[in-house]
Amino acid sequence: xxxxxxxxxxxxxxxxxxxxxxxxxxxxxxxxxxxxxxxxxxxxxxxxxxxxxxxxxxxxxxxxxxxxxxxxxxxxxxxxxxxxxxxxxxxxxxxxxxxxxxxxxxxxxxxxxxxxxxxxxxxxxxxxxxxxxxxxxxxxxxxxxxxxxxxxxxxxxxxxxxxxxxxxxxxxxxxxxxxxxxxxxxxxxxxxxxxxxxxxxxxxxxxxxxxxxxxxxxxxxxxxxxxxxxxxxxxxxxxxxxxxxxxxxxxxxxxxxxxxxxxxxxxxxxxxxxxxxxxxxxxxxxxx
Length: 288
Known about the structure:
By secondary structure, the chain is of the alpha/beta class. It is built from 11 helices and 13 strands. The strands form 3 sheets. It has a 6-stranded mixed sheet, with helices on both faces. Strands 2-1-6-7 form a 4-stranded parallel sheet, with helices on both faces. The chain has a 3-stranded antiparallel sheet with strand order 4-3-5, covered by helices on one side.
């Protein structure tokens, strides 16, 4: 049995970083003003932020089919028998199903699961899978371990600019305009509770109140904080990120494992600049 772990750039990894971790990489496409880039290959998150701050029109698409086919052809040559596939939610992208269909044509067995989310939870799962693979854990056992962690995970997103949500169809233009006038901040949830789709969990006024509300909900959902890793993500919103970290410390205790990440392209393109995210996932024992 020869096993490979694959993730997409929804994990926030670059192609180079993924390679250093022993993970193969599928870059999502990011379209900036009709120019297409490969996320994590010829576009990094700072480049994206710069474009967005300049008012560029941005959107995302699944990884190119040619890259998937090339990777699978190489696997056939290398006699790879099994793939552990870690991608963003099926509710957000067809990346997972598209790769499964391609792998089936090449006769390679794929072990996968729906993460019901993306961003830092996807990053964590990809790194856990790579570590378990190094330890010689069987592919299906890896999936079973990750499923348990995903069953104890959730994430919330708060956008500063509601116009981006309107463009993505999450809000009507009128609702976005009215929400901006009233300083309403929808708190979006992307988790197993929403079947991996973006759904409005709550609506409050001001970014700080939204962050506090999301942190409070996380505190209510997690009974033993030491068993979890927590993430704060932001698109160049230093104040919002620090507020989120402090609010999480308040509800979880000062020893909580809170890690900060940028808002990766897969979500930043749709939530816009200054967005803040809070995520958590149950830790897998024996994996750093």
